[in-house]
Amino acid sequence: TPATPTPPPTPPRAPKPVTFGVQEAFAFDKPKGSVALASGPELMNGRLAMMAFLSAAGAEIATGKTVGEQVAMSGNGITILIAGVIASTLITYCANIKTPANTPAPLQADVELLNGRAAMVGFAALLVFEATSGHALL
Crossing angle of helices 75-95/40-63, nearest 10°? Predict the structure, then answer.
């Protein structure tokens, strides 16, 4: 009698990714099971600093106005930018999304973290320079 073929084994299911709430995203320690390289606040501050430094430098070159003068002229636009950066960071951080392996080097998580830290220092230095000198750097 012919042997009954055995069905192929079912492949194991991939584990469901761990997700986080807003409270964990704003904690200063990265949550257990997170694929991010840093805590949520550090990522948000780094992204905001990169946007702030580039925006402030560009506006200083174009207008010659200090950061304080720029903020006074366009407070609503800055508020919308901050809200957008925080919201987009929260979406990816809470979903615990890992950066794809084929991500170009300038957009990889470790490079973004380093650039964010450099931007925080650079933006702080720009503010200190303007506060002490009374004029725009660029």
Answer: 150
HSE (CB half, 13 Å, CA atoms) of 104? 2
Query: What percentage of the chain carries pLDDT values higher than 90?
Result: 54
pLDDT tens, 19-61?
A: 889 999 999 888 888 888 899 999 999 999 999 999 999 999 9
Count other Cβ atoms within 10 Å, centred on residue 134.
Answer: 8
Q: For residues 86 and 65, what is the distance between their CA atoms, to the nearest angstrom?
A: 26
pTM for this entry: 0.79
Compute the distance between CA of residue 79 and CA of residue 129 in angstroms, rounded to an integer: 24
85 closest CA partner among 118, 122, 40, 38: 40
Q: How far apart are CA 64 and CA 94, in angstroms?
A: 39
| Angle value at C-alpha 101, between 97 and 106, nearest 5 degrees | 90
What tokens appear for 129 in the block? Answer: 């320079």
